[in-house]
Amino acid sequence: MRLAGFSLVEVVMAVGVAAFALVALLGLLPSGLKTFKSTMNTAVGSQIAQRVFNDMQIANWSDLTNTIRYFDEQGTELTNSNAVNCIYWVQVNTTNAATGTNSTQFLGNTSTNLMTVTVMVANNPGGGQSAAVVFNTTNPNTQTFTTLIGRNK
Prior knowledge:
Blueprint: H1 8-58, E1 67-71, E2 77-78, E3 88-94, H2 95-99, E4 104-106, E5 109-111, E6 114-123, H3 131-134, E7 142-150
Antiparallel strand pairs: 1-2, 1-3, 3-6, 4-5, 6-7
């Protein structure tokens, strides 16, 4: 007389298949987390750059200078880089400071009513690196955004 149920061989095979699938899924976890972190940095960096561009657009033309600003992980501006939650460093470069003039070349024309603004957003948690290292164009944690703004006043 045979009782209903699974044999030991069947149970071992089922556990082996389940373990194989679980190991494969766990192997994908680091890749997924890396992609998630990269996507979050890109999203927050874009929001910060847009905020800086908006701030520059409404500022007085004569007040636009090269600056370094600091933001937390949500994109909220901080007063200094020593804040515990300072994650993003932002370097703002304008054509005025770079060339010493108030003009910008655009499509072969020179305009005194346009200014090129370049914003470099770097992920630098805890301020572990210097500004020279953080704002290097070869740094994989740095994103660069450029736009033209028009004189508003």
